[in-house]
Specification:
Elements (H helix, E strand, L loop, with lengths): L10 H4 L4 H6 L14 E5 L8 H5 L4 E6 L3 H11 L3 H7 L7 E5 L2 E9 L8 E8 L4 E5 L17 H36 L6 H29 L8 H63 L14 H22 L4
Parallel strand pairs: 2-6
Antiparallel strand pairs: 1-2, 3-4, 4-5, 5-6
Helix pairs in contact: 6-7, 6-8, 7-8, 8-9
């Protein structure tokens, strides 16, 4: 079913025909993908669907797009007075977080952790806004688009802050998930060091370090935004800033802890290896003189009187046993065994 007012810039026209309700269902759990070129638009006052042309013409709404098509890019360039460099920035999936002012508008680029998959993937998004409208742009197809139907705000600033709070909260939740996963691997590693999955621990550390770096850079952008008079005392934005600070601190602390766990496991394995090598060295030292004695008796000289006696063979065995016992006792006394 095509939403009321859907035109050439609506999802029904640019998407795959699933319609507004089908497309937005399940966006909180990553079921739906906002494909390249697809656009969603809604009023920030009640979340009702609109077209992106209506939003850019001054209607109080918000646009959400993944890899926007040329027509939408031209509209954003005109609305926010962007140059080609800014357009390249918003389409760059590796661009770091930044804050820019464009006339009366603002342009934010932030990076958040994706909830999809096993590994921690950090995806960027751009957020343009002024006093009348906003645009949320993903430079890649997005399996976790923001559900615009949740918007019921009195002004676009509140709508922008709500979107920022929701998206940045995903980053913190992903950090917590990674910490829980790393704790399970840590328990298994310390419980049985010989079967410890050290590559998995190092991979979790690498992912946490990546999320900590993204959170730190996001904090710098939020600090710029909070110095804007319209956001200075916004409680929800301050909470988003606190979430980023917690995500950064938790991820950094856990990453450092995992290095300690890896070193502890390596120390345990090294200690066990030392014990094995010490035992093997002691056995080698004890057997070496016995091998020498055996070699002497195997020289086949014609005149070795002890070989001609009845007690020669048992005497040699008893002598070697006594020597081995004495060496073993000495090693035990020196605590080498």
């Amino acid at each position: 079913m095509v939403p009321p007012g859907a035109g050439s810039g609506s999802l029904a026209a640019l998407g795959n025909g699933r319609g507004w309700e089908a497309t937005m269902a399940g966006t909180d759990n990553g079921v739906v993908t906002l494909e390249a070129g697809q656009v969603l638009a809604a009023r920030w006052s009640d979340g009702a669907p609109m077209t992106w042309e209506e939003v850019l013409q001054g209607e109080a709404g918000i646009i959400q797009a993944a890899v926007p098509a040329d027509a939408l890019l031209r509209g954003l360039k005109e609305r926010f007075d962007l140059d080609e460099l800014h357009v390249a920035d918003l389409l760059n999936p590796d661009h770091p977080p930044q804050w820019e002012r464009h006339g009366t508008g603002r342009h934010l680029i932030l990076r958040i952790a994706s909830q999809e998959g096993v590994a921690a993937y950090v995806r960027p998004f751009s957020l343009f806004f002024d006093d009348q409208m906003a645009a949320l742009v993903w430079p890649e197809p997005c399996t976790e688009p923001y559900d615009l139907r949740k918007l019921h705000e009195e002004n676009p600033i509140d709508a922008v802050v709500r979107i920022l709070h929701s998206l940045l909260d995903r980053h913190l939740r992903r950090v917590v998930v990674l910490i829980d996963e790393s704790e399970d691997i840590e328990d298994e590693a310390l419980g049985n060091a010989e079967k410890a999955d050290l590559p998995a621990l190092l991979e979790k550390r690498r992912e946490l370090t990546r999320l900590a770096r993204a959170a730190r850079n996001n904090l710098l952008v939020l600090e710029h935004l909070l110095r804007d008079g319209r956001f200075a005392e916004h409680v929800r934005l301050s909470d988003a800033q606190e979430h980023m600070r917690r995500a950064m601190n938790l991820a950094e602390a856990r990453a450092e802890h995992l290095i300690g766990v890896v070193m502890a496991v390596q120390s345990i394995l090294g200690q066990r290896l030392n014990e094995v090598m010490k035992f093997l060295a002691a056995v080698t030292v004890i057997l070496t003189p016995l091998a020498v004695i055996t070699g002497v008796f195997g020289m086949n000289f014609e005149h070795m009187g002890i070989l001609e006696t009845d007690w020669g063979f048992p005497a040699s065995l008893i002598g070697m046993a006594i020597l081995a016992a004495l060496l073993g006792a000495y090693f035990r006394w020196r605590r080498w065994l």
